[in-house]
Amino acid sequence: MKQTICYLLALLSMVGCGGGGSSTTTTTNYADQPNLRDVSPVPLGVALGVGDFETKSSIRYSANAENYQALAAKEFNSVVAENVMKPEFIHPQENEYFWDDADYLVDFAKANNMQVHGHTLIWYQTLPNWMQNYSGDWEQMMIDHITTIVSHYSDSISSWDVLNEAFQDDGTERTSIWQQHIPDYIAKAFSAARTADPDADLYYNDYNLASAPAKLNAVLEMASDFKTRNIPIDGIGFQMHIDSNSPNLSQLRTAFSKAVATGLKIRISEMDVVMNPDGAYTGYASNIATQEHDRFKQVVALYLELVPLAQRGGITFWGLADNLSWIPNYYKHADWPLLFDSKLQRKAAWTGVYEALTEN
Ligand code: G3I
Fold first, then answer.
1. Is the pLDDT of residue 17 over 70?
2. CA angle at 255 for the pair 249 and 256, rounded to the nearest 5°
3. What SS3 class is residue 16?
4. Does residue 355 register a pLDDT over 60?
């Protein structure tokens, strides 16, 4: 009851300060409620910028680094590197690894009693030039890449996205340097990761798994084939880059249920919600607050309803605050896809997540 009153007050205050399409971001304060990490029944994570190239979002180099660290450590108990563990950044030359930024994140997590999820060992994007132009033994190169990184973090990283986005929405395999040069590369990547760290949970991670059933089917077939062949895989990551309508709840329910039936762990691995798909809004309007509250709450509640305790790998949000999200850059207009506003204040999305975590 108290939460509902708080939420209503929050909505009223948004109408007052940022409604009707004005350009004011809400500064509503939900400070009287506990932190998410203290109420969550699942690991609750956030993707963080670390590198100096992540000018705005870096928890190491940006002007706001200290505030980002404080907020992340207060609300979350799990972290993911938004970029610095991707091959281009962590493995810039064939014989050179750059650990500095990724180590910084790991140390930050340790200091604040947070888990680290590794993202991502093999992807078709964000590759260093040397990898794209490689002319040696591709299979050995991929295995060395995975082995070196997973071994480096075997004491500090408990789960990995081994393969990111290997299928297209129609269920066919995506073309990539890996797919072109290494037969059965997905299975070989998972096996190499298991050998490097037998204790880490190994995930396949992708987007549109609920809105593109053919893609989910391809992932499930892969998992079932792995089982037959004794290839290791522990979980499936639903990225959950969604908007406020699609996928609908029935699609999400079907997709979660099918994935749960495999017995694998399930993560919501990169959640954010596009609230301004057409760029129609120039400011954070009151109806956006209502929609984002409901959308975040429904998705998190559905995850908790459908994924049994033992299979919950956790929920990670793809960025700390609206102004740090990849979405406004990508779509080239304003958006409010995350739990905190640009002043690092809790938003209606935060309340939706809080309610879903505490009411279940
Ligand atoms: O490297 C340049 C840097 O030199 C320049 O100063 C800076 C100025 O904007 O841009 C820098 O790189 C950008 C980088 O983000 C850091 O901001 C890249 O151009 C940009 O493409 C990169 O985007 C990242 C994207 O993955 C591609 O790697 C986003 O931050 C990151 O949020 C996004 O995350 C992906 C997940 O890894 C996989 N799932 C989808 C998700 C969203 O696209």
1. no
2. 90
3. helix
4. yes
Q: Are 303 and 256 in contact (CB under 8 A)?
A: yes
Closest alpha carbon to 255 in 337, 242, 316: 242
Please choose, from the candidates 83, 102, 166, 96, the residue with its C-alpha nearest in 3D space to the C-alpha of residue 131: 96
Q: What is the pTM of this model?
A: 0.93
Distance CA 263, CA 353 (A): 25
For residue 343, how many C-alpha atoms fall within 13 Å in the half-sphere facing its CB?
Answer: 9
Letter for the amino acid at 288? I
The preferred substitution site among 326, 327, 331, 338 for testing ligand 1, maximizing ligand atoms within 8 Å of CB, is 326
Q: Which atom of ligand 1 is nearest to the CA of 57?
A: 17
End-to-end CA distance of the chain: 15
Give one DSSP letter per residue of 28-65, joined into a string: ---TTSPPHHHH-SS-EEEEEB-STTSTTTBTTTSTTH
Single-letter amino acid code for the residue at 241: H
**Residue recorded with tokens 């990670």:** 316
How is residue 212 written in tokens? 């593109």
Residue with the smallest CA separation from ligand 1 atom 28 is: 126
Please give the helix or strand (H or E) that residue 295 lies within, else none. Answer: helix 286-306
What does the alpha-carbon distance between residue 104 and residue 51 come to, in Å, rounded to a whole number?
10
pLDDT for 36: 98
